[in-house]
Amino acid sequence: MGSNVLRRQMMKTTLDIRDELLIRAKKLAKKSGRPLRAVVEEGLRLALAQTDRKSPYKLPDCSVGDSTHEDPLEGLSWQDLRDEIYGKTSPR
Fold first, then answer.
1. Which of 5, 14, 63, 81 has its CA 20 to 30 A from that of 40?
2. Dihedral of CA 28/29/34/38: which sign?
3. How far apart are CA 29 and CA 37, in angstroms?
4. Secondary structure letter of residue 72 according to DSSP
5. Which tens digit of pLDDT belongs to each residue from 4-30?
6. 63-88 burial, b for 16+ CB within 10 Å, e for fewer?
7. Does residue 80 contact residue 87 with C-beta atoms inside 8 Å?
8. Per-residue pLDDT tens for 32-49?
9. Alpha-carbon distances, residue 11 vs 8, 18, 67 (angstroms)
């Protein structure tokens, strides 16, 4: 019977990180006794988890008027609506 060994896949990459942030990360790694890689991975996990928790933005309802009454502008053409907006009277 073969043993299934869970192996972590690692990928090397290069990141440009601001000096002050890298210095702080290295100090935290040293203080906590963890490798810098572990500190960076933890930060990425926290950032991704925070993004996952955010609910999608919902537009506020900015409707005007009374929804129980018929909209007097509903049957107008675009030209009629334009005339209504700019206060023009058009022969009908």
1. 5
2. positive
3. 9
4. T
5. 556 678 889 999 999 999 999 999 999
6. eeeeeeeeeeeeeeeeeeeeeeeeee
7. no
8. 999 999 999 999 999 888
9. 10, 22, 57
